[in-house]
Amino acid sequence: MTHDVHDAPTFNRRALLGVAAGFAVAVGAVSARRSFAADAPAGGVKSDAPPFVAHKVQRGAGVLQARDYPGEGPALVMLHGFPDNLHIYDEMLPMLVAAKRRVVTFDFMGFGDSEKPKGYVYNFDQQLADLDAVVQALDLKTIVPVAHDAGGPAAINYALSNPRRIASMVLLNTFYADAPTLKFPELIELCADPGLHDLARAIIGDPEKAQWLLNFQNAHFEAKAPADLRKRFDTLLQPVINENFKKGSGPAFLAMTADARRAVAANDKRVGELATFKPHVNVVWGIQDPYLDAGVAKDFAGHFPNATYNPIEAGHWPQIDRPEVVAKAILAGL
Q: Cβ–Cβ contacts within 10 Å for residue 306, how many?
């Protein structure tokens, strides 16, 4: 379903923080009512995680947290979306590292363990600058951007502007410009629509209503998933999201959703450049995603002249649902 693109709403700072606080409370309430696996990522380092070098990357008023897993070849730079962080790649990392590939993960400003400066302006242009800062700080000569969800615009725009730095690119259930079947989750649509700003504030600012909204959204993500994938959603993904909000990612999440329509409209103007991008683009896609569906994946594959489409029986987070299959597809495309 094609969506209309409007100007992003303007959130005043006090209202934004108030809504974010209510959203964090609701997430805490949801987490308290669920039972999670003891080894779920939840913002820490799993006991069987491969070793990495931690980096603090200065970005203006704040610091980005990055992890550099030693290996060979152009670094696989993993970009997360919202409302999650670098831990969405934890299940797949051991396989990439075991293949002796260098991998870099990082939290965008405002998410995960990266800083959340007071009054910071979060948007898709800022995330593009975050990616550039990590590449420069770690002195990465060539990279393979691996983009999921809202990480797509930063990865693609960086690749278009720096083609000589790109060995290839991997797209995992992400978005960029408009596409015939592009559909944002209801929670994102609610927060992104300027006409529904007051409604969004009222719902998300009320812990009970926000909890209902979160449960509604989760149920829609899991609607077509088999039992094993629903369990992975609850035990591996949900703790990452819960921890993210508990650490104060609410303002960044709301600001990014508010900027989504503007970013898509801006990227519509660059779609023609995709046809000039020569490096290989590996479109690895969970085809059970009810929002960024197979139609979005095929649209990507049709725009890039050197693209491979790899459909996977998984949902919106294929790297969590089927980490072995996704890792194998990524490595095969390098």
A: 11
List the domain range (segments joined by +) for residue 266. Answer: 13-332
SS3 state at 73: strand
Distance CA 25, CA 112 (A): 17
Split into its structural domains, the chain has a count of: 1
CATH number at residue 163: 3.40.50.1820
Q: Is residue 7 part of a domain?
A: no
Q: Does residue 6 belong to any structural domain of this protein?
A: no
268-293 pLDDT tens trace: 999 999 999 999 999 999 999 999 99
pTM: 0.88
Asked, for residue 171, whether it belongs to a domain, the answer is yes
174 with 260: CB under 8 angstroms?
no
Residue type, position 36, single letter = F
How far apart CA 142 and CA 144 sit, in angstroms, is 7
Burial of 270 (0-12, 13-18, 19+ CB in 10 A): middle
pLDDT tens for 159-191 read 999 999 999 999 999 999 999 999 999 999 998
**Is residue 77 exposed (0-12), middle (13-18) or buried (19+ Cβ within 10 Å)?**
buried
- Amino acid in position 314: A
Q: Are 251 and 110 in contact (CB under 8 A)?
A: yes
Specify the 3-state DSSP secondary structure of 243. helix
Euclidean distance between CA atoms 85 and 264, whole angstroms:
21
Cα dihedral 23/183/79/152 (nearest 10):
-140
Contacts of 139 (CB under 8 A, 6+ apart): none
